[in-house]
Amino acid sequence: MKKFKRVLVANRGEIAIRVFRACEELGIRSVAIYSEEDKNSLFRTKADESYRIGKNKKPVDAYLGIDEIISLAKSKGVDAIHPGYGFLSENVEFARKCEEEGIVFIGPDHIMMSKLGDKIKSKIVANSVGVPTIPGIEEAVKSEDDAKKFADYCGYPVILKASAGGGGRGMRIAWREEDLLREFKSAQSEAKKAFGIDDIFIEKYLDKPKHIEVQVLGDNYGNIVHLFERDCSIQRRHQKVVEFTPAISITEEQRQAICSDAIKLAKAVNYRSAGTLEFLVDNTGRHYFIEMNPRIQVEHTVTEMITGIDLVQSQILIAQGYSLDSDEVNIKGQESIEKRGYAIQCRVTTEDPANNFAPDTGKIDMYRTGSGFGIRLDGGNGFTGAEISPYYDSLLVKVISHSRTFSDAISKNARALKELKIGGVKTNIGFLLNVLNHETFKNGSCDTGFIAENPSLLN
Ligand code: ADP
């Protein structure tokens, strides 16, 4: 058991604040890092200490400087580093170096991460324990010819994916042979450019599946539980926009089958910390594992609302060596986890829906938030006078509602979105309201084709 005194968050914005809050509640001192471009950002003032990093580096690279971050952590007496999501959160090298330097990486160890962080490898693990995956080739495809052979065998459409990909990037759909031949090389070079490795793989492209994912938590002693599923089917260009839990459009049997496959897979690697197993469900109701995210996710909030379990605190406690059933983590077995009601998260971004969701920048000249019964706001950069820069993710605030019924969770979320008044930069609030008010959303049955098929959501 190693009690943490100081935890550094190798991240920025809302997730950095989320972790600082958890630290404060656990009586741990929080340490922020920030780039030159973030010197006036809100998040750094929410930590107990903050240090500038990345001198002369590009804005994004500041948060990717493995050696600089670790040596800063060491010089400040930091016990552990929380990586948040994005940036270094799935970087095996970073996790390994933290371990080497005696700093606890709050997440799985680097070996576990290397087994799972990569989409091809995690598919292989899934197949080895009998968890269904989408038909595809379980290794990097090296040539157009190999890709074509697979597509001829399983039929079009197929999808090319970057093995190291994330955030909906690095995917190309081929509806016919010409597309495949045309897209192959650019998919490879895009993968190399965005993720540093040009490994791409191919699998069958499912027709408008649902995206259902399962939250798991594991400790250092082999205990693993799931905290039910989330429906993240409402996506724009393969990126999640609205998430909710529990999923409504699957049966209880499907829910149990998906959650039990998630546990099977997490157990196969003896998973530790918070993680998510993502599945696609096709229109016949079959589910397929697609990838594992060995980190906290943007949408973890909805799971916290219905289970009452603080996932970030749990991560920190597990990293200190507490077991799931300790009084600190306080999860006394799978059966002890109950869910109450429905929770919905809308991602408010500084993007202009009328201009193909181009990120908008500038000074926020008015920032008034909604609140009230059943509302939680997890924000990072929003306040009157804040400067929205073009350098980072455009997520401004997450509006999360929780209620006894799905329909009331929708009403509460819509009400909070209407109360949220942001001036000076464009946001997607109107678009989110259109999603919440749509009949298909209201009956919980959106699939991943929903946004693309409903251009009226932009009005
Ligand atoms: P990322 O890691 O970039 O988020 P994922 O592999 O999790 O990528 O996929 C993101 C989304 O892309 C899925 O939720 C789904 O909408 C779509 N997708 C991925 N693979 C397939 C597939 N084989 N068939 C249909 N849709 C897919």
TrEMBL record:
Which stretches make up the ATP-grasp domain?
123-320
Segments crossing the lipid bilayer: none
Question: Which residues does the entry assign to the active site, renumbered to this chain?
Answer: 295
Residues annotated to bind ATP:
119, 203, 238
Query: Could you tell me which residue ranges the Biotin carboxylation domain spans?
Result: 3-456
State the function annotated in the UniProt record: Catalyzes a 2-step reaction, involving the ATP-dependent carboxylation of the covalently attached biotin in the first step and the transfer of the carboxyl group to pyruvate in the second.
State what protein this is by name.
Pyruvate carboxylase
Shown portion of the whole protein?
1 to 459 of 1142
